[in-house]
Amino acid sequence: MIKKILTLGILMGIFIHSSATAQETGHRNNPLYLNGYRLQPVLLQKGQYLVQLSANIPHFYKWYSPKTGKYERLASYQVINEAYFSGMLTYGISNRLNIFMVIPVNDLHHYSPMGINKGIGLGDIKAGINWNLLAGHQDANNKYTAGITLGLPTGRHYNLKPGRLPTGTGSVSLRGNITGFHKSSNFNLLYSVYYTYLTNHNIYKTGNEGGGYLILQKPFNTTVGQFGIETSAYTYYKSATKKSGVTIPNTKNYGIDLGFGGWFNYQKNLSIRFNVPYSVYQNSSWLTKYQVMLQIDYLF
After folding, report:
1. Phi and psi (nearest 5°) for 166?
2. Strand partners, 179
3. Is the pLDDT of residue 71 over 50?
4. How many H helices and E strands in the chain?
5. What whole-number distance in Å separates Cα of residue 109 and Cα of residue 119?
6. Is-contact 278 290, C-beta < 8 A?
7. Are 272 and 12 in contact, with CB atoms under 8 Å apart?
8. Whole-angstrom distance, CA of residue 279 vs CA of residue 130
């Protein structure tokens, strides 16, 4: 875990150093109100690119037990190490329409007396569009966007060798979301709802998922750049997976995450941010894990 965080820090440092010496571009006046969950309430202007590199490293207090069907505290002989990395590229086709692609890489290691299980490799690649719902209204304090995301089953899931963990869902997914934004004199409020439909794979039907986000941001402008803090709430519900039309027990998943985070605009176009969400409630269990989410954003 420590090695992964140090490696990520070195990579971010290289990226920041190279960005700091890059040639200045002309795009400076479009605040995007970026956040740790990559909600996009404000679209890029035509011709702009946004590159986002992120890492999500969870720490587990409890783990799902197939014997009891509940989340139970990890035993002293269990070690669960997981890390999720991704790169996201967004391009402004126009001030009203953006396209994007997300490429994830997963690194999973589970250790116990029963053996070692690993899953390392490409996750499910996603691509989609975001549409400005208020393009004809010049209201800087209120924004609404709608998005559609297509997920492809590029991660391994089926026909795994013994000791291998899946790195993808094994299904094509289609996600729709609506994101809103309201700016007051002191705070930024972001909110979003989504629903994800997953297709069948042979005799399996992966459960669909719905959820919502609420983020409150407080920016601080200083002579060295903009700092900010944010608090977040995220809730979700994923229905159970079915095999030949029969529900597979204990495959339903639901929960509530509460988090805090912050950011710093190192340059006008470069920001560094973190978010630490706690899974305060998951599948009838309290405090199952927390996650350290690190992200860098650069606007070209």
Report:
1. -70, 145
2. 145, 192
3. yes
4. 1, 19
5. 7
6. yes
7. yes
8. 28
Residue ranges of the domains in the chain? 2-30+40-299
d(Cα 200, Cα 202) in Å, to the nearest integer? 6
Sign of the C-alpha dihedral computed for residues 239, 149, 290 and 34 taken in this order? negative
The CATH classification number of 2-30+40-299 equals: 2.40.160.40
Helix (H) or strand (E) holding 245: none
pLDDT in tens, 215-236: 999 998 888 888 999 999 999 9
Question: Can you name the residues that pair with 118 across neighbouring β-strands?
Answer: 109, 164
Residue 7 phi, psi (nearest 5)? -60, -45
Token duo for residue 297: 């954003």
Rounded to the nearest angstrom, the gap between the alpha carbon of residue 18 and the centroid of all alpha carbons in its chain is 25
Query: What is the Cα–Cα distance from 123 to 167, expressed in whole angstroms?
Result: 5
Structure tokens at 161: 């060798």
What mean pLDDT do residues 96-111 have?
Answer: 96
Inter-residue contact 256 to 233 (CB < 8 Å): yes
Q: List the alpha helices (DSSP H) in the chain.
A: 2-20
The Cα 86–Cα 52 span in angstroms is: 8
Query: With the C-alpha atoms ordered 34, 37, 42, 44, is the resulting torsion angle positive or negative?
Result: positive
| Both structure tokens of 229 | 């803090």
> Which percentage of the chain shows pLDDT scores above 90?
62
Are 82 and 109 a contacting pair, CB within 8 Å? Answer: yes
DSSP 178-190: EEEEEE-SS-EEE
3-state secondary structure of 208: coil
**First CA to last CA distance, the chain:** 32
Phi-psi region of 96 (alpha: psi -120 to 50; beta: other; left: phi over 0): alpha
Could you identify the residue written with the tokens 């989410």?
A: 293
Residue 45 belongs to what H/E stretch?
none
